[in-house]
Specification:
Elements (H helix, E strand, L loop, with lengths): L1 H12 L1 H20 L9 H13 L4 H13 L15 H16 L1 H7 L3 H32 L18 H29 L4 H12 L1 H12 L7 H23 L1 E8 L15 E8 L6 H9 L1 H6 L19 H22 L2 H10 L2 E2 L7 H34 L6 H4 L4 H37 L3
Antiparallel strand pairs: 1-2, 1-3
Helix pairs in contact: 2-8, 2-9, 5-6, 5-7, 6-7, 7-8, 8-9, 9-18, 11-18, 12-14, 14-16, 15-16
């Protein structure tokens, strides 16, 4: 505990790091404040009442499940008809599209290799694509809150203007939703440039964490109630949740180190012996795809729900694909994650380029010939570690359904924090942020040592 307090003091003593943390904290507060500012045409009090009635009186499980999951990424802004209802997700979608375009469009590939200037142009393309996606998602969102969440005529009091009026409701609301996403995107970029950590990821993480206190309190209330299992069960849940976090950390940081030897040269240009060469390694991540396979699979899982939407009963095999915690839904979800993990890893890890770079820089893998054999060796290693990584990722993704089916948790909201995209994003962002803070602390310590040494020996 003393070490932790001392670390906090060290962080606060570094002015640059302190300013970055304060800047990040202020922008996060602005983002959270915006999630509670509703669209001008919506009465938030009535919206909250309608959502409660809709969920308690036979609301579609597909809507309360998948749409609730989407709302968690925006910190509840999606379900609150907020100016940040679309959140930062259109920017994430645009970034994924641009990344995939880089594999097929030579112009994007050229920009990605031009360094800083190319990166700025790619970012500009991503911003324009974000606006285009918002132009599609904003009307779709407004349609959902007028036809899905507010289907009953007596609840029309939630609208301050006629929801069918194009000029008073639709056009202003679309402009505000697009502006909210652009502003959130700007804040994320500013956090990355002047704050600490990846700004876009931090905004997503904050949105996810915003729902945790409410979910935890609800879980305690149910478990401590008349139908609950008591304090012991709550203690077991917390221990299980901490264990899942440890498993997520292990998946995030796990790497397979492929040893590499770089042959050095003498001043005359002749090669030194390999035994005296510099020894390094190539870190191949067990989960090189990150959370992208889950995001891709989650996007496709809306399709089965739409196909079975016309079902009149929930006791059929096909109707299970529209229920987030059903075994049918999660089995298909896990299969899609494994498939997308291999796909995304194959298109994002440049095996041939890595082999060519090694050969060009005088590097070689022991007992493997440079060139094609090196590429084949790296591809074989990557395939072997990707399979268990994909299964591991799929298991974590469906873990909320597992804990719900076995009865470990009493509420759906708390079950969602036992795995899935939410927990993986939180773990990844926190690890990255802590790593950046540690880098600042180490650099400050190194500078201090150098200054102390120079003061003792100015010559």
């Amino acid at each position: 505990m003393k070490g932790f307090i001392q670390t906090l003091k060290n962080i606060w003593s570094i002015k640059e790091l302190r300013d970055k943390l304060i800047f990040t904290f202020v922008l996060v507060l602005v983002y959270r404040f915006g999630t509670h500012v509703s669209l001008p045409a919506i009465n938030m009090v009535e919206v909250d009442n309608i959502l409660d009635i809709y969920k308690n009186n036979g609301g579609n499980q597909q809507a309360t499940g998948l749409l609730g999951l989407l709302s968690s990424f925006t910190g509840g802004a999606f379900s609150k008809a907020s100016i940040f209802a679309l959140g930062i997700m259109p920017y994430i979608s645009a970034s994924i599209v641009v990344q995939l375009m880089g594999l097929a469009i030579p112009y994007i590939q050229k920009l990605q290799k031009e360094g800083e200037s190319g990166r700025k142009k790619v970012n500009q393309i991503t911003r324009w694509l974000t606006i285009l996606i918002c132009l599609i998602q904003a009307p779709a969102y407004l349609t959902s809150i007028t036809q899905v969440f507010l289907p009953i005529e007596q609840f029309r009091t939630a609208y301050l203007v006629d929801p069918n009026n194009i000029f008073l409701f639709w056009i202003p609301s679309i402009i505000i939703l697009i502006s909210g996403t652009i502003f959130a995107m700007w804040m994320g970029e500013k956090i990355t440039d002047k704050g600490i950590g990846n700004g876009i990821s931090i905004l997503i993480m904050v949105g996810i964490l915003a729902g945790f206190p409410t979910a935890f309190v609800q879980e305690i209330g149910v478990q401590m109630g008349d139908t609950g299992k008591g304090l012991i069960m709550m203690f077991v849940e917390v221990l299980a949740w901490l264990l899942v976090i440890i498993l997520c950390i292990m998946l995030t940081v796990a790497v397979r180190k492929v040893p590499v030897q770089y042959v050095s040269r003498t001043k005359s240009g002749s090669l030194r012996s390999i035994t005296n060469a510099a020894r390094q390694y190539i870190p191949l991540k067990v989960n090189a795809a990150g959370v992208m396979p889950i995001i891709f699979a989650q996007a496709l899982m809306f399709i089965p729900g739409l196909l079975v939407r016309s079902e009149t009963t929930t006791n059929t095999f096909w109707a299970g694909f529209s229920q987030v915690f059903s075994w049918q839904y999660n089995l298909l979800f896990a299969i899609l994650i494994i498939v997308f993990t291999f796909f995304y890893t194959a298109i994002t890890i440049p095996i041939n380029q890595m082999a060519d770079d090694l050969k060009r820089n005088g590097g070689l893998i022991p007992r493997v010939k440079p060139g094609k054999e090196t590429a084949d060796f790296l591809d074989d290693v990557l395939s072997k570690i990707t399979l268990p990584g994909a299964i591991y990722l799929a298991l974590i993704a469906v873990l909320p359904a597992i804990v719900k089916i076995i009865g470990l948790t009493a509420t759906d909201k708390f079950a969602l924090f036992f795995g899935g995209t939410s927990l993986l994003i939180m773990v990844g962002v926190l690890l990255d942020t802590v790593q950046q803070i540690n880098t600042y602390l180490l650099n400050h310590h190194y500078d201090g040592l150098m200054q102390s040494r120079l003061s003792r020996n100015p010559n």
